[in-house]
Amino acid sequence: MTYEIFTALVIFAFVSSITPGPNNLMLMASGANFGFRRSVPHMLGISIGFMLMVFLVGIGLVQVFELYPISHTILKVASAAYMSWLAWKIANAAPPKQGEAGGTPMTFLQAAAFQWVNPKAWAMALTAVTVYAPTQSVAAVALVAVIFGAVNGPSVSTWTVLGQQMRRILTNPTRLRVFNWVMATLLIASLYPILAPA
C-alpha cells in the first residue's frame, strides 16, 4: 500500500467513523446512561466487530449478495427490525436511582454482532474493500481492516466521552428521558438511507 493510499484510507476511516450513525448515537446514549468505563465493551465490540466484518466482506462474503439478491432485502428488513428494537430500548431506559446504575450497557458480543445489521457499517465496509483493497487479496483486506480498526476505536470513543459529559446536564430524570427519546428518534432516522426508495 502506497503512502498516498494509506493516507486516503486513514482519512476515509476517520471521517466515516467520527460522523453520526447508529453506532455513535448508541455510544453517546451509553456514555450518558452508564458512563465511559461501563461502555468500554460496547466500544471494543464495535471496533473489533467492524474489523472482522471488513475482513470477511473483503475475502468474498459480498459475493453472497450477487448470487442471492434476496439476501440483500432480508438484511434490510433484519436491520430495520433490530434497530427499531434498540431504539425502543434506548427510549424506555429507566433513569438510574440514586446510587444505582440502572439497566445494562451493550456487551462486546452484542456490539460486534450489531455491525452485521448496521447499514452504515455495511456501506463503510464495502467502500473500504472496493476502493482501498481492489485486489481483494487476504493481505490487502487484512491491512485495510487493521487500519480501519486503529482509527475507528479512538473515533467512536469520542461519542462515549461526549455522552458521559452530558451526564452532568442529565441528572434530572425528565431531561435524561428526553435525551433517550431524542437518541432513539435519531437512531430510527438513521434507517432512512436503507428504507428510502432507490
What does this structure look like?
This protein has 198 residues and is mainly α. 77% of the residues lie in helices and 0% in strands. The mean pLDDT is 82.
Short key terms for the protein model shown above:
mainly alpha, 198 residues
Cα-atom radius of gyration: 17 Å
Most strands sheet: none
CA(first)-CA(last) distance: 35 Å
Name the beta content range: under 5%
Give the helices and strands as they follow along the chain: HHHHHHHHHH
The number of helical elements comes to 10
Q: Assign an overall shape.
A: globular
Structural class: mainly alpha
What percent of residues adopt helix (DSSP H or I)? over 70%
If you average the pLDDT, what whole number results? 82
Question: How many strands in all?
Answer: 0
The residue ranges in which pLDDT falls below 50 over 5 or more consecutive positions are: none
